[in-house]
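Propose amino acids for all 290 sites.
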């Protein structure tokens, strides 16, 4: 076990959706380094097994299963298999997300339904389906949901994805309040640019009946133009982006920012909200004095 990983997690069980690659696979490795048993879950079962095999080679208890969080039966079966193998879950990462590029007028109802169904309903489904096996465990338990830095710095051509991640934040904030008395913590992770196969995996996960996931040649260019004049995020390997994540979870931190140079944009948004409060309060004082 690496000295940098919190020893409080040794012997506990982590379940991670989207563990076949990218951020999910990096989280799985970090959990294994901390001495946890790991359930690697992904819609791409072969990649989930590759992650589990990698962890097993490091002498970590690891198990892989296919899960499509867009499907209730698939999610229930994954939870059953994890529970059967490890006897519950202490740390859950609801980490699945798909992207669909496109201008707002070009995104179809099917595009919106798919992205919101996976990113929002899939996150909710993952949490609510795992909760019973987490409640049984007792002791330290924690849920982590993956949002996006895009909720602070939206970019054009990503309306469906950004809206879905804003909804995930709202869900997680409420979840934290509802689980406080149960002793189950909740952390929201805000990833920025990383070297992953997110676009590829999103396209492969799109159901056949919805047709091919389309990205027009100008989508990326338009997105980058919309960020012109703002600091660009550093693109990191997932392993580098999540350094310190488990320490923050053990400490019960509410939020985890992976990386990125968008703090100025975030603070500008806060300043605009502060000014809106000030205008509201000024109007209220005027009305009281009239």
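Proposal:
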């Amino acid at each position: 076990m690496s000295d940098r990983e919190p020893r409080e997690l040794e012997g506990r069980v982590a379940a991670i959706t989207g563990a076949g690659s990218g951020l999910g696979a990096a989280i799985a490795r970090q959990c294994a380094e901390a001495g946890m048993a790991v359930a690697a879950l992904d819609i791409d079962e072969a990649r989930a097994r590759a992650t589990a095999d990698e962890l097993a080679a490091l002498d970590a208890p690891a198990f892989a299963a296919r899960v499509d969080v867009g499907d209730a039966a698939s999610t229930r079966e994954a939870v059953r298999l994890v529970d059967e193998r490890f006897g519950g879950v202490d740390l859950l990462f609801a980490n699945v997300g798909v992207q669909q590029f496109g201008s707002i007028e070009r995104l179809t109802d099917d595009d919106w339904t798919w992205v919101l169904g996976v990113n929002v309903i899939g996150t909710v489904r993952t949490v609510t389906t795992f909760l019973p096996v987490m409640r049984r465990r007792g002791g330290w338990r924690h849920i982590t949901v993956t949002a996006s830095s895009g909720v602070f710095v939206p970019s054009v051509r990503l309306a469906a994805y950004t809206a879905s991640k804003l909804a995930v934040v709202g869900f997680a904030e409420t979840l934290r309040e509802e689980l406080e008395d149960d002793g189950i913590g909740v952390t929201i992770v805000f990833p920025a640019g990383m070297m992953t196969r997110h676009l590829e995996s999103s396209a492969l996960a799109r159901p056949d009946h919805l047709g091919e996931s389309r990205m027009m040649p100008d989508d990326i260019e338009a997105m980058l133009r919309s960020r012109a004049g703002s600091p660009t995020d550093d693109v990191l390997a997932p392993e580098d982006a999540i350094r310190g994540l488990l320490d923050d979870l053990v400490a019960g931190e509410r939020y985890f920012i992976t990386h990125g140079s968008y703090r100025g944009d975030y603070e500008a948004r806060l300043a605009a909200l502060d000014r809106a409060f000030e205008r509201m309060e000024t109007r209220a004082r005027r009305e009281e004095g009239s």
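The chain has ten helices and seven strands. The mean pLDDT is 89.
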